[in-house]
Design a protein that fits this description.
By secondary structure, this protein is an alpha/beta fold. The protein is built from 5 helices and 3 strands; from the N terminus they run H-H-E-H-E-H-E-H. The chain has a 3-stranded parallel sheet, sandwiched between helices. Helix 2 crosses helix 3. The termini are far apart.
């Protein structure tokens, strides 16, 4: 795996999308830590903001399958990968949103 310094103008995850899955495949403990950290705050509805390519989405879908999971991804680069993962792996996501919270505010209010 090659590494690249990311500058503010590189648009964060979009700049590393090609290596993102490889780089995060070894972070299962990190994802479990995230779930453990938020567990006490989880209610009936879960809004995942910045779902990326769906790695934490998958964990949320498995652990909280009886809850309503909504995932939002603002990156035009990552959204198709997220969408494909949810569809292919049949993740229990009630709705996917493409864009920012501001872009989807009216839709989110209805959920």
């Amino acid at each position: 795996m090659t590494t690249k310094a990311i500058e503010a103008g590189d648009f964060g995850y979009d700049a590393v999308d090609g290596n993102y899955l490889e780089a995060t495949s070894i972070t299962q403990n990190y994802h479990n830590w995230i779930l453990d950290s938020i567990h006490k705050h989880i209610g009936k509805n879960i809004l995942e903001v910045g779902a990326g390519v769906g790695l934490v989405t998958e964990k949320l879908s498995q652990k909280y399958s009886q809850r309503n999971l909504y995932s939002l991804e603002p990156s035009k680069v990552m959204y198709p990968t997220l969408q494909k993962k949810v569809r292919q792996e049949k993740l229990k996501v009630k709705n996917l949103f493409k864009g920012t919270i501001t872009d989807n505010f009216a839709k989110l209010k209805k959920t």
